[in-house]
């Protein structure tokens, strides 16, 4: 193969989960040119990846003409929705392969809550897709190349942990009060740096007000690449099911991964890098309503949000384990 088009429109975590596909393609075919078709909002997640020849934007007319006219040997559809189906129809002349979304299994898991219907991890589904074209996968975890230098006025010489606030859906977001409870039980001298977008500024302010000497609020002040650089240099990342959790896994960081309405059984857990970065999942088990959807909800359907009724004391214990593992 000389030229491949890979389709993945969004979002941050899903794009990071695609990174082994590019790496393994390039290892098997060093001269291959890989074009990416994505949304403009997510170009920054792909940037600086050395395996990419061109990043084409779905909503750019010039880029649209490029993917319509370029001669490709294969289209790999890693999004598999109506939009990507349209691309494949328009490029009917190019062989294509699509990632299985296993939506029926996910639907059955949501409806029955039975582990029998647990979805195959998406990283394994990507590997299976490559193996169909004779590419042996290296199982070396995820990659992230979009690191950016931190602002010159940011100087934290001592060790620190990072708390990544936010989430794509409210039922995946760790409530502010839970982080306050967690920090009230956490007795080490290591500070916590709070990161997130502008939507997390209010939550971060409430946390910092409760623990002014223990937290550093950088929400809304950093780019994605700068936040990733901050995570790369931290000791432990604490996060809900967010894109930053996947970036942390790609950087080989120890992660305390806090789950709400979704579960690892839906297949979206990041693979661990070999001999790097332990991942500990924190879940509220035994709930008859969890998972309540494959993606999350903007509000708890039951209005009790028990899936985030965690014991922060257990978070602290596991943070200590992860912190010790980071020191070797």
Helix and strand succession? EHEHEHEHEHHEHEHEHEHEEH
Strand content: 5-15%
Instruction: Tally the beta strands.
Output: 11
Regions with pLDDT < 50 over 5+ consecutive residues? none
Query: What is the rounded Rg?
Result: 20 Å
Q: Identify the overall geometry.
A: globular
CATH topology of the largest domain: Rossmann fold
CATH architecture of the largest domain: 3-Layer(aba) Sandwich
Query: With helices defined by DSSP (H or I, 4 residues minimum), what is the helix count?
Result: 11
- The first-level CATH class of the largest domain is given as Alpha Beta
Relevant CATH superfamily of the largest domain: Glycogen Phosphorylase B
Please report the distance between the alpha carbons of the first and last residues: 42 Å
Give a brief outline of the structure.
This protein is 34% helix and 13% strand. It has helices at 12-28, 43-46, 61-69, 82-90, 103-112, 122-131, 176-185, 201-210, 224-232, 243-250, 312-326; strands spanning 3-7, 33-38, 54-57, 74-77, 96-98, 161-164, 192-195, 215-217, 237-239, 255-258, 279-282.
């Amino acid at each position: 193969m000389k030229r491949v088009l890979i389709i993945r429109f969004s979002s941050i975590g899903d794009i990071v989960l695609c990174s082994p596909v590019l790496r393994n393609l390039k290892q098997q075919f060093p001269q291959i040119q890989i074009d990416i078709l994505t949304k403009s909002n997510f170009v920054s997640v792909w940037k600086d990846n050395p395996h990419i020849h061109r990043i084409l934007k779905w909503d750019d007319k010039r880029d649209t003409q490029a993917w319509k006219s370029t001669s490709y040997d294969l289209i790999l559809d890693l999004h598999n929705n109506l939009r990507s189906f349209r691309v494949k129809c328009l490029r009917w002349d190019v062989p294509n392969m699509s990632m299985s979304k296993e939506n029926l299994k996910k639907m059955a898991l949501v409806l029955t809550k039975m582990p029998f219907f647990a979805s195959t991890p998406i990283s394994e589904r990507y590997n299976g897709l490559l193996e169909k074209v004779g590419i042996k996968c290296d199982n070396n975890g995820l990659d992230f190349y979009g690191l950016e230098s931190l602002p010159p006025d940011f100087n934290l010489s001592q060790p620190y942990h990072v708390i990544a606030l936010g989430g794509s859906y409210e039922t995946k977001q760790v409530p502010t009060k839970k982080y306050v409870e967690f920090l009230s039980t956490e007795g080490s001298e290591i500070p916590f740096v709070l990161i997130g977008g502008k939507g997390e500024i209010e939550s971060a302010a409430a946390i910092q007000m409760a623990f002014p000497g223990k937290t550093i609020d950088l929400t809304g002040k950093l780019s994605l690449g700068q936040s990733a650089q901050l995570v790369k240099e931290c000791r432990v990342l604490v996060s809900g099911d967010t894109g930053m959790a996947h970036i942390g896994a790609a950087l080989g960081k120890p992660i305390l991964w806090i789950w709400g309405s979704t579960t690892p059984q839906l297949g979206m857990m990041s693979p661990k890098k070999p001999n790097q970065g332990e991942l500990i999942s924190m879940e509220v088990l035994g709930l008859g309503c969890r998972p309540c959807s494959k993606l999350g909800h903007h509000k708890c359907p039951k209005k009790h949000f028990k899936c985030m009724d965690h014991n922060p004391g257990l978070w602290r214990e596991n943070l200590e384990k992860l912190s010790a593992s980071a020191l070797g």
